[in-house]
């Protein structure tokens, strides 16, 4: 299961030239407003015909200007979850969900009942979209796309219109989707938190072309990406394994550089997962700190210090096999005389690792 | 029993409806403007018998070979009258040069379309031959059929109108000022003829019925003249 | 009320209802197709098509009737072809009255439908395409249900217009009682008779009542369709 | 082309343009008001008003003309009042032709306007009220500019319909050359005489060309108005 | 300048019964979706007529069921900034801005030129709203409301539709408005960060009635409000004074409990301001920590510990004359044996105090 995009297209003042390969899992398209994310997704869906290039789904070309091929949308078998839901207002939830069924080449991998269960919409089947909350609508849209047995799921800011409570409601479903089906997902979002939680691959667009692409861990932990990602969202993503659930509500995880405590997770011990540690949530200490309320302290070696725009400095560290980022003031860096190669302790408040930043992967 | 389909000028409706009701066989009568009906017959309308208020259109059909020319008859005649509305006190005698213009004043003379509808054509001819047309021409309100002209007078919108004697006869609300002299306009004739190739026998039978004296009495009751009356 | 109208008048009423109903039904698929084309497609001759559709609104009805007679009469290009190939005769039949009424009501129907179609979000149609539905299926299952209120309004308007159509009908199919004599033709015939105004008025009242019922029903139906879409 | 039409025909054309123009202009304010009431207000008798507006569409035109004569004729209730109080005479005048055309075109105009008004977001009007603007000012400065495309479309449709109106006009104001002889009356007259078809056709072509021009102009104007609103 | 609201109204299943008094400055209406915030604002604007009650602007009643009074919207002189802008699409920016001018009873306090300057829209005056970005639109909407010389500004989630870059663009304008005009503002928002930055008074709505209202500092620092505010947004707001700008880009502030360092602020020394310290950004330490990269350490006394839903505990502390909140794990609280009355050190990363959380007031 993979996607290849290699297209050129002119849109108003913007010259798009976009080329990337998405392996399985969730590939996030990330970039500022107007960099061409929706355009790429529409090209994959066949709703927009690029001027030239080639798009392959599972190795099978669906668009190729050299052989003058452009498979019409309804034959591409893409499941598109639009930002605005686009449920059919005149059909019940059940009818919306089964709309694509008759065109699916094979039986859907999961039945209507299973998908409704997965998405928590079993009780809504006989209602009409008009009466649903924003979060419910979006879950129905996801179920509808899934049940058409697509070869790929395209999601264009599926959560952007929702408030944070609704987002929190849907994110787990997207994780289950990623983990329990083998459908690749192309996911557009402005939210680093969402991407960190979901994406296996990140493609960063800038001004109509691909600025950087690669595994999520690498791209998001790259200090060179701080500008694109934004100072407050910069951070590192570390692979982790769940070791144990403690009965005071904490879950213990092991990362290559040590162990971490997180608020209770409902995943079984032994499960591989990822944690995200924001650069500004990390405090550095030369000595091993004592008597602090922070539970998580990792040992690390400084790799590099980079000045930011303001009074801050980004400190990149090696922590076990992983990279860690910290954002501290220039003054602290000077007072502590931090140098590449120094050994250091990274203090991380357990509760500052957001629940939404943890995902299986 | 074979139903007969008759295409008849609309002004014949009251008389023909009464006669058709007494006829043994069913009769379907389609009333309309003579021009409309004639043109429909040209285009193959399922008419068996055509009764026109307008000899010109019957002539056209005869030239086209659409009527049984040998059976063409003048069924009825009619006269033109000058009528006055309910609130008008007419002091007019129809004679050459009579002062219709003064009687009208700023008001209108209701007539059917003077270039297109027979009643209007005859009326204009009569007024011309009486030498009053020039004075009243600009005060003539023309309607698309003669009934509408009558209605204008009935409603008091126009004080005077030129209509058929039959129309005036049937309308209690108008007063007949006078009848236009026979010679002041071409004779008003209602020709009738069966349509070629249609349903000649029943059509002929109904036409014969209309030509009977009994039928003639009904027509006369409605104000029509019969061709024998010296028209 | 059965005493109030004579048998010929009942017949005219029934025929008018019948003709208007069929005219509406007949023009609906064409109306939807043309309205869709005008609303959604770009093609050469679009302006011409638009004017052509509006023509019956612009021309005096008598002219439309005459043009129908020339085209669909038994000697007319299409009329003779229809007769030779299918044995179909339109002129002077109730079928012709249906055609005349349909043509006259067509611009009104197309305008209503066009506005309704323009109001449907093409994004919903795109969404259906991504789910694998071919164009025609999308149209039937998404576009059509969504334009239902406009379709109802347009149909009833066309029906009302058809109920009132006179000039084109009498010119094309004449005024044969029981065959082509519709309510308006009967009204016309009464107006030709001295003292017929009363009878004409009776028929006018009948047609107003029918059209009023249709309009009210349409408003109600359209509201229901809107509510159904808005969802409970 | 001046050879192609006779002087009387030129006169009929000029009069038709004039009458249609005034009919459109005259009905516009009423149309806007009634369309606004139907679109935005809830009141008793709304359904009746709606049916009343549609009546000229439903009734045979001759009947409408007859009713006009009864109401606005010199003996009619309103007609005599107008004459006694203002010296205004409508019967047999071009002004009456304007009235007839306006009434016949009214339903089409109101429908267009009503849809346009329903499409204006009441939230914008609320926003204007919070800025201190009284209702009428809000209407003039916000609602009206926003319905401009619909207003143009509705006006041109009404104009086209007025250009083709015959039955009600000739019944109400009859046919007085130079005063009330419009293009459709002239066409009708030609059709009554054997051999007049050619002349009738010439006038039909003229009216189609005029209406076509108006329709094309309206599509262009409406597009411009929409673009102006969408903004550069 | 003040507003009194005391209304009862039934809306579907919701029984509204809302009563509060807003003094000058910014009064924030805060509450979940569907608690009646928009309804209140509409009632003040006269766009909705409550079933009963009384609304006063500046002591003058504009709505009163007892005297059967309801001043129509256009005579109330409220400036309403809608969530969706609602600019007049057919008018230029200048015409939009001056729309209300002719109805203003007196000359606007600020001229068109001044307001445009303040809002940074002087260059847009001849353009039409259609071509403006979301942030520009919203600023024009604010300017339009301002220039109608309102007695009060009503703002219903004016920033909700904007991405964070646009929000950051507009917030400073709102602050200037609050600080440089004397128009009271009734402000609806879901965002605690926005409210903390802007509000002088906070009114918390819950299920149709007022759950809590009072000065922003008190309401937002109230540990009892954690549930309404949300765990991740809970924190304390402290009055502060700017003491000094250091040339390494840090600004020093004094709070009643000590001093704090923040990234450079462009406000003159001596200015009073407020800082917000999120509970989850505070680490507690028994001993005074040494060699940490965190610059801000305040001494405090524990007032209370409250258990949350998860493994967290909210620790409320007295710090000088102010209250401070920290959110730590139950486990840490137990290990450190925290008790009310204990002296403790609160470690706060300077960079974790967001710029948007600082405002003059
Ligand atoms: N039809 C069009 N004509 C001209 N320019 C267009 C058109 N459609 C899109 N654009 C421009 O192309 C660029 C890319 O648009 P696109 O919608 O793909 O951006 P995006 O990355 O999805 O942005 P966002 O995050 O705001 O959704 C934008 O600058 C947009 O203004
Ligand atoms: N016309 C109406 N009929 C019935 N219920 C209504 C109506 N308008 C609003 N409501 C309900 O009243 C409640 C309050 O609505 P309101 O818009 O004031 O909430 P809000 O606090 O502004 O919410 P949000 O944060 O989502 O904007 C909601 O539950 C809403 O569903
Ligand atoms: O009988 Mo006519 O042909 O209507 O004047
Ligand atoms: Mg996009
Ligand atoms: Mg709201």
Polypeptide structure, described:
The complex is a heteropentamer, with two copies of chain A (361 residues), one copy of chain B (231 residues) and two copies of chain C (232 residues). Chain A is an alpha+beta fold and 361 residues long. Chain A has ten helices and 21 strands. Chain A has helices at 37-45, 73-76, 93-97, 112-119, 134-147, 164-180, 192-198, 216-220, 226-229, 330-336; strands spanning 3-11, 14-22, 26-30, 52-57, 60-64, 69-70, 78-81, 152-156, 185-188, 201-206, 209-215, 235-245, 250-255, 258-263, 272-278, 282-285, 296-307, 312-319, 322-329, 343-348, 359-360. In chain A, the strands form four sheets. Chain A has a six-stranded mixed beta sheet with strand order 7-8-9-3-10-11, sandwiched between helices. In chain A, strand 10 (201-206) and strand 11 form a beta hairpin. The longest helix of chain A is centred in the middle third of the chain and has 17 residues, at 164-180. Residues 355-361 of chain A have low confidence and may be disordered. Chain B is an alpha/beta fold. Chain B contains ten helices and ten strands. Chain B has helices at 13-22, 34-42, 55-63, 100-104, 118-129, 133-136, 146-154, 165-170, 200-210, 213-221, and strands at 4-9, 27-32, 49-51, 73-78, 80-84, 109-112, 140-143, 160-164, 175-179, 188-194. In chain B, the strands form two sheets. A five-stranded mixed beta sheet of chain B has the order 2-1-3-10-4. Chain B has a five-stranded mixed beta sheet with strand order 7-6-8-5-9, with helices on both faces. In chain B, strand 1, helix 1 and strand 2 (27-32) form a beta-alpha-beta unit. Chain B is elongated, with a radius of gyration of 18 Å. Chain B starts with a strand and ends in a 10-residue tail after the last helix. By secondary structure, chain C is mainly alpha-helical. Chain C has a single domain (7-231), classed as MetI-like (MetI-like fold), CATH 1.10.3720. Chain C is 79% helix and 0% strand. Chain C contains eleven helices and no strands. Chain C has helices at residues 7-40, 46-58, 61-72, 77-86, 94-119, 122-130, 135-146, 148-164, 167-173, 183-191, 197-230. Bound molecules: adenosine-5'-triphosphate (ATP) (2 copies), molybdate ion and magnesium ion (2 copies). One magnesium ion binds at residues 37-38, 156 of chain A.
């Amino acid at each position: 299961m993979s996607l290849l995009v290699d297209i050129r297209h002119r849109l108003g003042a913007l010259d798009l030239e976009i080329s990337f390969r998405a392996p399985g899992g969730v590939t996030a398209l990330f970039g500022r407003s107007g960099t061409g994310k929706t355009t790429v997704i529409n090209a994959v869906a066949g709703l927009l015909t690029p001027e030239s290039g080639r798009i392959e789904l599972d190795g099978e070309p669906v668009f190729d200007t050299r052989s003058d091929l452009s498979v019409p949308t309804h034959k591409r078998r893409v499941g598109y979850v639009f930002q605005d839901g686009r449920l059919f207002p005149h059909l019940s939830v059940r009818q919306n969900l089964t709309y694509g069924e008759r065109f699916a080449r094979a039986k859907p991998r999961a039945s209507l009942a299973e998908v409704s269960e997965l998405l928590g919409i079993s009780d809504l089947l006989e209602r009409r979209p008009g009466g649903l909350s924003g979060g419910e609508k979006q879950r129905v849209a996801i179920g509808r796309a899934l049940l058409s047995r697509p070869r790929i799921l395209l999601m264009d800011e599926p959560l952007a219109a929702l408030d944070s409570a609704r987002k929190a409601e849907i994110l787990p479903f997207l994780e289950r989707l990623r983990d329990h089906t083998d459908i690749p997902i192309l996911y557009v979002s402005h939210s680093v938190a969402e991407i960190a939680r979901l994406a296996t691959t990140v493609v960063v667009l800038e001004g109509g072309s691909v600025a950087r692409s690669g595994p999520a861990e690498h791209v998001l932990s790259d200090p060179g990406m701080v500008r694109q990602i934004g100072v407050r969202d910069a951070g590192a993503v570390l692979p982790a394994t769940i070791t144990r659930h403690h009965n005071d509500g904490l879950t213990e995880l092991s990362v290559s550089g040590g162990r971490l405590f997180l608020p209770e997770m409902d995943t079984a011990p032994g499960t591989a997962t990822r944690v995200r540690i924001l650069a500004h949530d990390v405090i550095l200490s030369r000595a091993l700190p004592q008597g602090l309320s922070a539970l998580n302290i990792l040992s690390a070696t400084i790799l590099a210090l980079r000045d930011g725009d303001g009074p801050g400095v980004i400190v990149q560290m090696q922590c076990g096999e992983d990279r860690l980022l910290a954002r501290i003031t220039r003054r602290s860096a000077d007072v502590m005389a931090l140098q590449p190669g120094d050994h250091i302790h990274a203090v991380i408040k357990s509760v500052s690792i957001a629940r939404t930043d943890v995902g299986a992967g | 029993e074979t139903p007969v389909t008759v295409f008849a000028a609309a002004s014949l409706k009251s008389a023909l409806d009464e006669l058709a009701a007494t006829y043994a066989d069913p009769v379907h009568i389609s009333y309309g403007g003579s021009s409309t009906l004639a043109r429909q017959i040209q285009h193959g309308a399922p008419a068996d018998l055509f009764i026109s208020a307008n000899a010109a259109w019957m002539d056209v059909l005869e030239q086209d070979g659409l009527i049984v020319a040998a059976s063409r008859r003048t069924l009825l005649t009619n006269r033109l009258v000058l009528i006055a509305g309910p609130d008008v006190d007419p002091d007019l005698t129809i004679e050459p040069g009579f002062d219709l213009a003064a009687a009208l004043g700023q008001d209108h003379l209701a007539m059917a379309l003077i270039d297109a509808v027979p009643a209007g054509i005859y009326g204009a001819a009569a007024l011309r031959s009486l030498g009053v047309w020039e004075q009243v021409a600009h005060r003539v309100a023309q309607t698309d059929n003669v009934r509408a002209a009558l209605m204008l007078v009935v409603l008091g919108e126009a004080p005077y109108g030129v209509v058929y004697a039959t129309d005036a006869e049937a309308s209690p609300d108008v007063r007949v000022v006078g009848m236009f002299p026979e010679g002041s306009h071409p004779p008003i004739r209602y020709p009738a003829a069966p349509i070629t190739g249609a349903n000649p026998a029943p059509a002929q039978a109904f036409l014969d019925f209309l030509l009977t004296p009994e039928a003639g009495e009904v027509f006369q009751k409605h104000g029509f003249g019969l061709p024998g009356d010296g028209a | 009320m059965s005493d109030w109208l004579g048998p010929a008048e009942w017949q005219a009423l029934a025929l008018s209802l019948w003709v208007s109903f069929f005219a509406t039904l007949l023009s609906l698929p064409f109306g939807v197709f043309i309205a869709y084309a005008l609303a959604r497609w770009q093609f050469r001759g679009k302006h011409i098509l638009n004017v052509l559709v509006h023509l019956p609104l612009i021309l005096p009805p008598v002219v439309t009737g005459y043009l129908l007679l020339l085209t669909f009469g038994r000697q007319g290009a299409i009329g003779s072809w229809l007769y030779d190939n299918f044995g179909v005769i339109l002129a002077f039949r109730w079928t012709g009255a249906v055609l005349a009424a349909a043509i006259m009501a067509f611009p009104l129907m197309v305008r209503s439908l066009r506005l309704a179609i323009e109001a449907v979000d093409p994004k919903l149609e795109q969404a259906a395409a991504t789910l694998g539905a071919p164009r025609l299926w999308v149209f039937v299952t998404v576009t059509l249900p969504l334009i239902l209120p406009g379709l109802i309004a347009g149909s009833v308007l066309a029906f009302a217009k058809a109920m009132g159509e006179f000039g084109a009908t009498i010119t094309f199919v004449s005024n044969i009682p029981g065959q082509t004599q519709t309510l308006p033709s009967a009204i016309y015939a009464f107006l030709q008779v001295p003292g017929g105004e009363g009878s004409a008025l009776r028929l006018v009242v009948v047609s107003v009542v029918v059209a009023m019922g249709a309009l009210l029903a349409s408003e109600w139906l359209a509201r229901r369709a809107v509510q159904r879409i808005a969802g409970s």
